[in-house]
Amino acid sequence: MNFTTLPKIELHCHLDGSLKPETIVDIARKENINIPSFEIDGIRDELIAPLECESLDQYLEKFSIPNLVMQSKENLRRIAFELLQDAAEENVKYMEIRFAPLLHTKQGLDVEEIIQSVLDGMKDAEDRFDIKGNLILSCMRTMSVASAFEVVEKGKKFLGQGVVAIDLCASEEEGFSRNFIEPIKLAKQYGYRVTIHAGETGIGQNVLEAVTLLGAERIGHGVFIKNCEEAYRIVKEQQIVLEMCPTSNVQTKAVNNFREHPIYQFHKKGIKVTINTDNRTVSDTNMVNECKILYKEFDISFEDYKQIYFNSVEASFADSKTKEMLKKYI
Predict the structure, then answer these.
(1) What is the CATH number of the domain that holds 292?
(2) Is 221 annotated as a binding residue?
(3) Annotated binding residue at 261?
(4) What domain range is 177 assigned to?
(5) Is 104 annotated for ligand binding?
(6) Does the residue 2 lie in any domain?
(7) Is 22 known to be catalytic?
(8) Catalytic site residue from 10, 82, 90, 200
(9) Total domain count for the chain?
(10) Burial class (CB in 10 A: 0-12, 13-18, 19+), 127
């Protein structure tokens, strides 16, 4: 299969994990921001997590440098534009970008300005390239419950204007869902869709609670339902869609290697899976590469790919008109 020309859908991609090294150096030079290296290869080495990461927490350390240059409206707009531009060049037809607005307030921007800037960059790209996008607002599990309420409240004015969903992300501790029941409940009342990072580390119970306590429609990663019978059952029975990211999952040691990744086994057992990059720069990957990994390791057929593509379309938080358009590509 020629994965370069096949249409693709990406539902799980972090904005701050997908900055071009060239962009970071360019902005840092212009704004006199102190970064570890002003050489492209040097900063790339600082941004990319090795396959030999010890844990998710070590992987997450790579996000500190990108956030240094994501503190102005102009930079956020540029970075969002470039991400969709890069994706369009891979024949990604629809993409959901997620980011945590509260990470970008260090120079005085308010949350509404931050969200609008990212949406503006996405719209710029949609106007120029054959790609559509929507935005997911992430709440940091390492921050207070009040901070999650803030994101939900300030993001609601953008529902129907590019913002589609709420997310919980960052370091994963057992039972985190119990702390965020009320802000996620409010988000659902406002009309946000819900996708939750869970089961990325060895805690399958977190997936179960993300579904039962928070009403998650999709799960970011979900690898460890393989170790939790009840989580596996509810994901399969309720057709909860897993946003799986093979390279990232090897890096964070959710799995030891690509061959051990459960994505293909889940697919064959009737669990709905999707293919995603997670973080294009931190994981040094793109959608073509992630698809090639599945082909190399599991010899997926065109019918497998087509089913995963349709899973992605149906699981997307796009409107019905966009979904019908996306189906026609394949």
Answers:
(1) 3.20.20.140
(2) no
(3) no
(4) 8-328
(5) no
(6) no
(7) no
(8) 200
(9) 1
(10) exposed
